[in-house]
Structure formats: structure tokens, C-alpha cells
Amino acid sequence: MSKNELAILGLLNERPMYGYQINQEIKERQMDHWAKITLPSIYHSLTKLAESGMVRMETAKVGKMPERRVYSITSKGKAMLADLVEKFLTCKEEPNRPFYLGVAFVCGLSKERTLAALKKRMELLIQHLSDLKGIHDEYKGKIPFNWFMIIEHGLKHLTFEQKLIQRLIQKIESISEWSEATGHKG
Fold first, then answer.
1. At which of 89, 122, 146 does a domain end?
2. Structural domain total, the chain
3. Could you give the CA distance from residue 140 to residue 65 in angstroms, rounded to a whole number?
4. What contacts 24+ positions apart, CB below 8 Å, involve 147-152?
5. Pairing, β 55-60 against β 17-18
């Protein structure tokens, strides 16, 4: 089972929903950014979960709208949700961080391109931080504590990364001979 299944089972544990509704909930909670869950992957996961008996699918008609497939979690799905939550809480793996790989191999870029890339990342980070601060202020006291703690963790993480990038830029700018410092020729 994957993060998609965990997210879908978790949301369906709150209430029955149709696929598009799950997608809207994921977007509202900003999970599309930090959990990287997309609409096609939601429908794919719902099919797998229904086939394995984790969710039940019923059709419902609302007004003049076409029939919708409404999904609800089964007792088997609730047991799987509990197992997945425990597994994810105790996961030993570090998150996938392509940025760290980029930092590790800056010697593959010229000093100018390295600085330009880091400054671009800083701009994106500043925008993301601003957006997240707005979300933090908007949802404070309005969402469950565990969801709010995810937002707070994101703010601290992004703030730390911003300081790291500032230090990295300063260090690189202070290097007079890039090729000697990194072994990069050119």
C-alpha cells in the first residue's frame, strides 16, 4: 500500500466521498503539494482499494447531475488504515530530497549557474513560505491539531531551508577559485 491509499482511506474514514470530492479535500489540505497526490492517482487507488475490499462503492444521483460513485471505508479498510498509519509513523526512510543531491554535486555546475539555480530556488522558497504562512494564519484554530502541526512543521522546515540556502550562497560567493574548490573545470 502507498501514501495514496493511506490518504484516501484516511479521508474516507472521516466520511464517504466521491473521487472528485477526495481530490478537492486533498487540495484544500495542501496535500497535493507535500504528499504529491494527483487526481488520476486517486481514481487508480480507489479502483485498487475497491477491488481489495478496503472501500465500498455505491452510485448516487444528486438532482440532474449524472450518477456519482460514492466510496466509503469498510471494516477491512479501517484495519488497513490503522496498519498504514503505524507503518508511516515508524518509517525509517528519509524523505526523498533531490535538493540534497543537487547540493552534493554542485561541482557539476559552474559557479555562475550554481548561484543562479540557488537564487531561483530561494525565490520559489520565499513564495512557498509566504503561501504557507497565509494558510497557517487562515487555519489556526479551525482545523484538527494534527493537521495544524503539519503546517507548522512545514513552516519550520522551509525557514531552515531558506537559512541553509542563504549560507550556501554566501559560501559560494566567497570562493574565488571555483574550479579549485570543487574540482570543476569550467
1. 89
2. 2
3. 35
4. 147/29, 150/34, 151/30
5. unpaired
Express each pLDDT in 22-76 by its tens digit.
999 998 888 887 788 899 999 999 999 999 999 999 998 878 888 889 999 999 9
Domain boundary pick from 34, 59, 89: 89
The DSSP H or E segment spanning 2 is none
pLDDT of residue 186: 47
Residues 34 and 8 in one domain: yes
What cell was used for 97? 530530497
Are 76 and 103 part of one and the same domain?
no
| Structural domain range at position 61 | 3-89
Decide if pLDDT at 161 tops 80: yes
The pLDDT of residue 64 is: 84
Burial-class residue 91 by CB neighbours within 10 Å (0-12, 13-18, 19+): exposed
**Tens-digit pLDDT profile for residues 88-128:** 877 777 665 778 878 877 777 888 998 999 999 999 989 98
The whole-angstrom separation of Cα 35 and Cα 184 is 36
Task: Indicate if 80 and 131 belong to the same structural domain.
Answer: no
Q: Are 74 and 86 in contact (CB under 8 A)?
A: no
The C-alpha torsion from 180 through 102 and 97 to 26, rounded to 10°, is 150
